[in-house]
Design a protein that fits this description.
Length: about 240
């Protein structure tokens, strides 16, 4: 903001953030630019202090969500592609940046946990399904798979559910966008467990799985197949690393 204001005023900005002055990455800013949720903001200070002291920082970011690979800051980090090893204690590399959709991988002062918003939840529901049923099932499915809710980028369903109050309120409660797709669009995606009711009512073999894949875009893969509970079905897709 200071740089933009200075440009408009024809002034010289004085940036006092230490990482900016030393031309080091400001990881909180970089995370926001790359659409990564910060699980523990306090750890930014610890990692920044390590960078300012010239110490290497361990980095687990196998899909290069931060975009550091091949860039000017790559040599500041030691990459560790295995999440388990990245979480092992190591006094020499106490400062770490962990980029993962996994839930609670050991939050600690020196571990900056970033959640790439790459998960899309497809939802199917019976008419009149209440908000609390939808929310409860989404949360239960994510928890059982060990996925962090902060990594969810949005919800999706079939166009016929556009006016479903419970679904609309569930998306609003989660603070997530909700997309709807036509039956023709969803029919193009494979379904693990076809539903006779979905075929009878909408002309598609299923709703939640194809909706999740459609929202996640080209190259997406299903990470949680259809999971049913009472009057709600949920599936989760992960976007392609290259998207």
């Amino acid at each position: 903001m200071a740089a933009r204001a200075a440009e408009m005023l024809g002034a010289t900005p004085i940036i006092t953030t230490a990482t900016d002055v030393e031309e080091l990455p400001a990881l909180d800013t970089l995370a926001r630019e790359k659409n990564l949720a910060i699980a523990n903001l306090g750890a930014v200070k610890t990692v920044s202090a390590a960078l300012l002291a010239g110490r290497n920082v361990l980095l687990h970011d196998p899909d290069d969500c931060l975009g550091l690979r091949g860039g000017r800051w790559e040599m500041l980090f030691r990459e560790e592609p295995d999440l388990g090893r990245a979480l092992e204690p190591d006094d020499a590399l106490a400062a770490r940046v962990i980029v993962t959709e996994r839930a609670a991988p050991g939050l600690a002062a020196g571990r900056l946990i970033l959640r790439p918003r790459r998960l899309f939840v497809g939802v199917g529901c019976r008419k009149g399904a209440p908000e609390h049923d939808i929310l409860r099932h989404i949360r239960a499915v994510l928890a059982s798979a060990g996925l962090a809710p902060e990594a969810v980028a949005g919800l999706a369903s079939i166009e016929d559910k556009r006016d479903e109050p419970g679904l609309l309120r569930a998306a609003e409660s989660l603070g997530l966008p909700l997309r709807f797709f036509s039956a023709a669009k969803l029919a193009a995606y494979p379904v693990n467990t076809p539903s006779p009711k979905a075929m009878e009512r909408f002309g598609v073999q299923g709703v939640c799985e194809p909706a999740a894949l459609a929202a996640a875009g080209n190259g997406a893969r299903l990470v949680i197949a259809k999971t049913a509970d009472r009057n709600v079905t949920v599936a989760v897709a992960l976007t392609s690393p290259n998207k």
